Amino acid sequence: MAFNIVSFSFIFALFLLFPLSCNSSHKHDTSQKSYHRQHSSSSFDQKNSDHTKGKWILLHKSIGISAMHMQLLHNNKVVIFDRTDFGSSNLSLPQGKCRYNDEAIKVDCTAHSILYNVATNTYRPLMVQTDVWCSSGAVNSNGTLIQTGGYHDGERKIRLFSPCTDEETCDWTELQQNLTVKRWYSTDHILPDGRIMIIGGRSAYSYEFFPQNSDTNYVFHLPFLKETTDPKEENNLYPFLYLLPDGNVYIFANQRSIVLDYANNRVVREFPVIPGEKRSYPATGSSVMLPMKLVAGDFSPVVEVMVCGGANGGAFLQAAVGGFMPASRTCGRIKITDPDPIWVMEDMPSGRVMPDMLLLPTGDVILLNGASKGTAGWESAIDPVLNPVLYEPGQSDPNKRFSVLNPTSIPRMYHSSATLLPDGRILVGGSNPHIRYNFTGIKYPTELSLEAFMPPYLSPHHSHLRPSNTTVEGPISYGQNFSITFTLGVSQYTKEVMVTMIAPSFTTHSFAMNQRLLILDIVSIQQLSSFAQKITVYAPPSRNIAPPGYYMVFVVHKGVPGHSIWVKMQ
């Protein structure tokens, strides 16, 4: 069994005290350097002064594009891209590279995608050939991003981006093979056999696979997607999709959800309608599958799904005429493995449409980005929600599960994105509620900036608790034991340790596709020296629970995670 290791050391502690920050302008970047970097001190204001509520860092004032889509790769690079059909971006392609098939301008020599280096806080332009607007993606078992669909000339396209050793030249590859159906606002998910399932999209009431199992392109009709389409508004695009331990998939759209046996194209279960508002694009809420706690030999762990935010039916049409309805402030949780599941509803501290929900290494959930009124769409929302919210699903008192964290100063509205990084930070970018890039004379200008949010567990006050120098003793096989060694900053022996395993997500339009967090079963903890310990855990038992591919493994000590290490399940 192959595995990759990225060790964490004293450098990370220095980073927490003196984080990287970069500033640049919105001017068109014509630099021909492969990677773009600037150096300046990070800004710090009173909003960040309470270390118990997290800290915001401005990484770049401009990366030249608006971050509509993000995917973290196992080489600690993040692929970020926007769309191509609005004209020039603010970042030039390397000399001599241009697109000549653009529908907005005859010749486009600007980039609409970048590769961001997490370790060095630098980026370089990438070249996409066709329009990737409102597309979808998933990382396959080899770590390659399979990116599907988009708009107009991109609506049937399949694109690949592979982590590479030649950092200066690797770029997007567009396949000659096309999708069977136009896919715009669809969702992708990796399956146990390594294929990618592509489901839904505008007027696409079906699903298909990449790669296909035969020479014939098959598409499978799914009436559920048409049934959940609201007249004039839809409210069922970018459906929430989760692979289940029994190998079937859970699908949520609008307010309804089902379990689909995709191999036989058969709906095997339907769940109660979630109370309250609509939850899918453009009444955009967000969702996570809450952490699965694994026990050795148990192939059927409890599965619980959480859905938060959204908008009332009719909100999209109201926004089109300047009426912005309050966003939903409710969240619902449902244990879909229960024999008689019900939605258990809770109230967030405030209403939120277009939130991003991400799983943290601690097993908690963070909600960021979005607005308190309106819906997704051009000029369709107002009143940004600047404060992230932390949700602790294991807190027994429902009144104590939500906590409000320090706010950003940058509104992140329609077309924002966020993703978890290997060091535990959250990368945040994007926001462009306009048809084109627009920076002046408007309330919510196009955002080209890139930020990082440091959750409270990254406070330097927790340095003595933070695991470091983490390594994995391989190989790692499904259902077998493996060991992790780590050190603590001061001599301490504790059994308050948790090991979590997180799949990196493809994030766009308020949904982190393929995101899942597994809490591994601990076999033993051994003291190796005054500072070093070894923890032995059970690997996930099956591909249904952990689809093949790369995962970040975090050691969490007393609620404080160390830097993750990458492992490969195959």
Automatic annotation (TrEMBL):
Domain Glyoxal oxidase N-terminal residues, every copy: 68-457
SUPFAM superfamilies: E set domains, Galactose oxidase, central domain
Iron-sulfur as UniProt keyword: no
Record keywords: Signal
Classification via CDD domains: E_set_GO_C
Superkingdom classification of source: Eukaryota
Region of interest called Disordered, as start-end residue ranges on this chain: 29-50
Signal peptide positions on this chain: 1-24
Residues covered by the Galactose oxidase-like Early set domain: 466-569
One Pfam family hit: GO-like_E_set
Residue intervals passing through the bilayer: none
PANTHER family reported for this sequence: SECRETED PROTEIN-RELATED (PTHR32208), WSC DOMAIN-CONTAINING PROTEIN ARB_07867-LIKE ISOFORM X2 (PTHR32208:SF66)
Descriptive protein name: Galactose oxidase
